[in-house]
Amino acid sequence: MNATIFAPATALGKAGVAVVRISGPQALQAVDQMTSVQNPIPRKAVLSEVHTLDGMPIDEALIIFFPMPNSFTGENVVEFQTHGGRAITAILLNELAKIDGFRPAERGEFTRRAVENGKMDLTAAEGLADLIDAETEQQRRQALRQMNGALAQIYERWHGDLKHVLAWMEAYIDFPEEEIPDNVSAEVRDKIIFLKEEIEKHLNDGRRGERLRDGLQIAIIGAPNAGKSSLMNRLAQRDVAIVSSTAGTTRDVIEVRLDINGYPVIVADTAGLRDTAEEIEAEGVRRAKARAEEADLVLWLTDANGLKDETETQGLDPEKIIPIMNKADQVSSQNDGNFWISAKTGQGVDALLKKIGKYVEDKLSMQEEPSLTRLRHRSALEECMEFLKSSLNAPEIELMTEDLRMAMRALGKITGQVQTEELLDVIFKDFCIGK
Ligand SMILES: Nc1nc2c(ncn2[C@@H]2O[C@H](COP(=O)(O)OP(=O)(O)OP(=O)(O)O)[C@@H](O)[C@H]2O)c(=O)[nH]1
Ligand SMILES: [Mg+2]
After folding, report:
1. Which of the two ends of the chain, N or C, has the fewest CB atoms closer than 10 A to its terminal CB?
2. Ligand 1 in contact with 242 (CB < 6 A)?
3. What pTM was estimated for this model as a whole?
4. By alpha-carbon position, which residue is closest to atom 24 of ligand 1?
């Protein structure tokens, strides 16, 4: 029998209410042994005192019972809604642990049970985790769509298509004396080619969904003293990086997360690029270059009144660079087609934010077709593609069938139609306790 698990479902700390959730075959034991409620009516909140196993009062709480199978986990679930105080939650958890068959939940264990009991597929579970983690409006929308099954629908459709093709081929293998009609085998190949093209299109989405989930990476790059840290502070609207007139001030990469029109962005301030014999600065320069390389967008800053800038854009994709002239406040002629700002006075920064906003929206905005959101999805789809390609070149029908079976398996791993302990362990280790 499964253990009955419990965990706080709300963040610990002072609050009006704190919820502790209990799930498992013996969940009602908690109601029997710690409250005065008898035979709770399903899904109906009832007010009760809550006490320790030996009768000492803990708090007053609302108790709700969700009987299996129509609960979040698919098991019997009980919620204790107490007042939100650390001491209350602490003693409540402490007492629950004493009940036979009860133990604290592991990370993501409630959701994992929901998946195992067929209440939701893996992509929906991931969507739920992303919804809780969403920091910006667009992330929330993407996560909600995934939680509601938008990705699962696509993968299950493809899975179904493959199953159909396979069923037909297996029937053929079972009755080999029957000639495989040319038009039918052509139809199978067409189906595989069509599916392959659909998956290809889905994969070539510029990593839109993954970037929206993780945040678009922006790096501020340029010569020492160009004003990179000043710009960083202005974008962040707080004092995150040290600004000084000494060239070579910034060494480490400093990051801030920003919400630009509902899109998540991670801005990195970096060391000024120059040749230097100083060991620590040289490491900073190396990190700056690496960051520029990885970034989705580079703000290339130049000191407008400096001599000619010696730094070069080091073979970066010009598409991802916005060249910017800084210290506009010190220069009179600015009609040269360059983008001018002053990190010091704020001149031009709104226009720059607008420009960045457009870029970000262009790269991350949700499309009608939902995008995959995790490397895990991408890897499984790439694996599926390999098997589809291989199936089209298979010399014998048996080998072709085997390839298609493997392709179907790869798809099944995304939604959880194919489940292994390891797969579930990896996915749910990123969840919080209580989810
Ligand atoms: N007048 C004026 N001075 C600026 C502006 N932006 C930055 N500065 C000054 O330029 C100097 C260098 O600024 P930082 O922001 O530290 O430059 P940085 O590019 O981060 O420099 P490193 O970290 O050394 O690479 C400081 O004295 C700033 O006050 C600007 O728009 N106008
Ligand atoms: Mg700096």
Report:
1. N
2. no
3. 0.88
4. 248
Contacts by 199-204 with C-beta closer than 8 Å and gap 24+? 199/158, 199/381, 199/384, 199/385, 199/388, 200/385, 202/154, 202/369, 202/371, 202/372, 202/381, 203/372, 203/378, 203/381, 203/382, 203/385
How many other C-beta atoms can be found within 10 angstroms of the C-beta atom of residue 396? 8
Domains defined along the chain, listed by start: 4-105 (3.30.1360.120), 123-205+371-428 (1.20.120.430), 212-364 (3.40.50.300)
Peptide bond into 69 cis (omega under 30): yes
Distances (CA, A) of 187 to 41, 147, 162, 164: 56, 35, 13, 12
Q: What is the pLDDT of residue 311?
A: 62
Give the position, in ligand 1's atom list, of the atom nearest the Cα of 326.
31
C-beta contacts of 391-395 below 8 A and 24+ residues apart: 391/192, 392/189, 392/192, 392/193, 392/196
Distance between Cα 357 and ligand 1 center (Å): 24
**Measured distance CA(121)–CA(101) in Å, rounded:** 27
At which residue do the structure tokens 């093709």 appear? 165
Closest ligand 1 atom to Cα of 233: 15
- Nearest residue (by CA) to ligand 1, atom 2, is 327
Q: Pick the range with the lowest mean pLDDT from 63-77, 169-183, 220-234, 354-368.
A: 169-183
Protein residue whose Cα sits closest to atom 11 of ligand 1: 245
Residue with the two structure tokens 């809780």: 132
Pairwise CA distance, residues 206 & 199, whole Å: 14
Task: Note the pLDDT of residue 432.
Answer: 80
pLDDT digits (tens, 9 = 90+) for 271-283: 999 999 999 999 9
